[in-house]
């Protein structure tokens, strides 16, 4: 139920949230005991089993507004994160409920702009910030202090506080801000996962085919791909949970039966991204073999030019949605994490 207020919950919803989370240890222990016999778990370490079930159980058992109340907004996550890492509070306010949150020492020579996911309605996750900090710290070991890469996360308006296309607008504002403060366009690397990756593709469409705000078409959200059903028990979220997230966001995304390549790359006509090499230098795209959205992502990959190494793709064997973050949360470094780091290293060398 939408109240129009971010993270608003009733006392019954608060009670339900407490009871649900109290059951997590029992669910986690059971999952760990049966993991050697489960297709989705038998290849994982015990740490990954516990990490995955904790995320899957809590995310699929709680409603969106309950998760919002539990996590807070981007700035709340950021404040707790910098305290844990003993880093200075460094936020550049962009306006319109958006800002740039620095996850490293502020450096505008070379910058990774991180756009978080969460179906436009959930904040940046602290373990995602951990992952990108670890990745950038590892990369910076190969460069002198003056050549090191800065890491900054975009905080954009979350549903219900921001309707589409306010999120896309704020990426443009963030890029303009970085460039106006001395970062060359060719030294900006934009990274995003899930909805954040979708926003990056929307940005690419807008750069290739600029449109005015009034002309931005509607959004179409779908869970009809075969992989949604096939991987429902294997992914980090079940098919029906994805459906609930999409259903929550749809009214604020002006959803309708008409779809658009500006906001749903899957619907892009042939040749839509053919000139992508004129606006960006390289693209890396990945998906997990066990992801519900695998088929949709694979279809989008085929729409991006792949000549001369412009596009690098990777299908993570037995991988799930945002598997690199779950690896980080479990204290591991997986194959996908290494490939992302190596690709960034090649790009900034």
From TrEMBL:
Gene3D superfamilies referenced in this protein's UniProt entry, alphabetically: alpha/beta hydrolase (3.40.50.1820)
Protein name: Alpha/beta hydrolase fold-3 domain-containing protein
Keywords tagged on the record: Hydrolase, Membrane, Transmembrane, Transmembrane helix
Keyword tRNA processing: no
Domain of life of the native organism: Eukaryota
PANTHER family xrefs: AB HYDROLASE SUPERFAMILY PROTEIN C4A8.06C, STERYL ACETYL HYDROLASE MUG81-RELATED
Pfam families for the chain: Abhydrolase_3
Sample GO molecular function, one term: hydrolase activity
TM helices/strands, residue ranges: 15-34
The species this protein was found in: Panaeolus cyanescens
The Alpha/beta hydrolase fold-3 domain, residue ranges: 112-321
């Amino acid at each position: 139920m939408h109240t129009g207020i971010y993270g608003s919950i009733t006392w019954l919803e608060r009670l339900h949230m407490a009871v649900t989370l109290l059951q997590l240890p029992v669910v986690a222990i059971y999952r760990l005991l049966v993991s050697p016999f489960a297709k989705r778990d038998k290849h994982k370490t015990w740490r990954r089993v516990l990490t995955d079930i904790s995320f899957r159980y809590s995310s699929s058992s709680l409603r969106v507004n309950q998760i919002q109340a539990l996590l807070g907004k981007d700035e709340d996550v950021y404040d707790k994160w910098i305290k844990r890492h003993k880093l200075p509070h460094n936020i550049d306010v962009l306006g319109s409920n958006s800002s740039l949150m620095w996850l490293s020492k502020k450096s505008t020579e070379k910058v990774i702009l991180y756009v978080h996911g969460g179906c436009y309605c959930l904040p940046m996750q602290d373990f995602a910030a951990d992952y990108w900090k670890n990745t950038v710290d590892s990369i910076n070991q190969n460069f002198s202090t003056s050549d090191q890469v800065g890491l900054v996360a975009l905080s954009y308006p979350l549903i219900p506080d921001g309707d589409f296309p306010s999120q896309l607008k704020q990426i443009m504002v963030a890029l303009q801000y970085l460039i106006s403060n001395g970062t060359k366009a060719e030294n900006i690397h934009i990274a995003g996962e899930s909805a954040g990756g979708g926003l990056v593709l929307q940005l690419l469409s807008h750069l290739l085919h600029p449109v005015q705000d009034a002309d931005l078409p509607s959004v179409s959200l779908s869970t009809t791909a075969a992989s949604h059903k096939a991987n429902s028990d294997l992914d980090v979220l079940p098919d029906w949970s994805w459906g609930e997230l999409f259903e929550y966001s749809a009214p604020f995304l002006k959803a309708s039966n008409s779809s658009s390549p500006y906001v749903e790359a899957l619907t892009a006509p042939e040749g839509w991204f053919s000139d992508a090499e004129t606006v960006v230098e390289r693209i890396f795209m990945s998906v997990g073999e066990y992801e519900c959205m695998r088929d949709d992502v694979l279809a989008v990959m085929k729409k991006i030019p792949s000549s001369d190494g412009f596009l690098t793709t990777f299908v993570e064997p037995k991988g799930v949605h945002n598997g690199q973050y779950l690896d980080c949360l479990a204290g591991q470094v997986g194959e996908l994490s290494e490939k992302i780091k190596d690709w960034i290293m090649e790009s900034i060398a």
